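Entry 14. Structure prediction run on the chain below.
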Amino acid sequence: MKTSLDCIPCLLRQTLEAARLVSTDTTMHEQVLRSVLFWTGEMDLSQSPPAMAQRIHRRLREVSGVDDPYREAKNRWNHLAMELLPALKDQIESSNDPLLMAARLAITGNIIDMGISANLTESNVRQAVEQAMIAPFFGEEDLFREAVARAKSILYLADNAGEIAFDRLLIEQLSPERVTLVVRGAPVINDATLIDARAVGLDKIVEVIDNGSDAPGTILDDCHQEFRHRFATSDMIIAKGQGNFETLSNEPGNLFFLFKVKCPLTAVHVNRPLGMQMLMKSKLGGTL
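Output returned:
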């Protein structure tokens, strides 16, 4: 997806929220915001919104001197998700369709996105979990199920900390021995890194690699060679979160997106309303 003019106010809001999370220094807030306001005049709108956010958060880390501004929040979300996991596993085990149940719970975890709102609360997450199976859902589950059955290798692109514990539920249904989990190569917003994969124990059940990039999505040209090779050769790719959809929606392959629609522009792009849980195959995907 390209960046729209309507993305600019959202990026400015995210900039100010992030700066205030890092520091109470209003001078620093102004410095970061002025940088972003300057960049908007030369913004390449052919790039995806995560490419713009990547630049913003690099500047935030530079000005604040904090390598991982969201680390405390990420630890908190990981802890909450691990608390919820036993009850969610019980739901899957008692379900008539464990794979689809696990997929829907994994999508529910996509609510833990501090790029959309820095004011997300534990109550918001618990409520989303309670409503997971009655929330609006668009699923190409037959295509998904067939792809899972045929794949010998699955590349699973994680999104956020906390959410990554929900991903564990789905990975356990996919047969972990054929799954490689991919996290960000460096901190950006509350996106998951190797620290978060280890915090929820995923390194104990699957191979975990990072993509070498600090973009809040998957910009292939910005990722290291090992990841690009895995992306090109895996039988199936599962991409979690709206940022991965925004950066990979024009990529071909046996690629499935699992995310919650949180942006009006994404809603128009997928022709679904805000709040919809999505399990969709890439429109440029090949045959199964």
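Residues 7-64 form a domain with the Helicase, Ruva Protein; domain 3 fold (CATH 1.10.8).
Filed with the rest of this week's runs.
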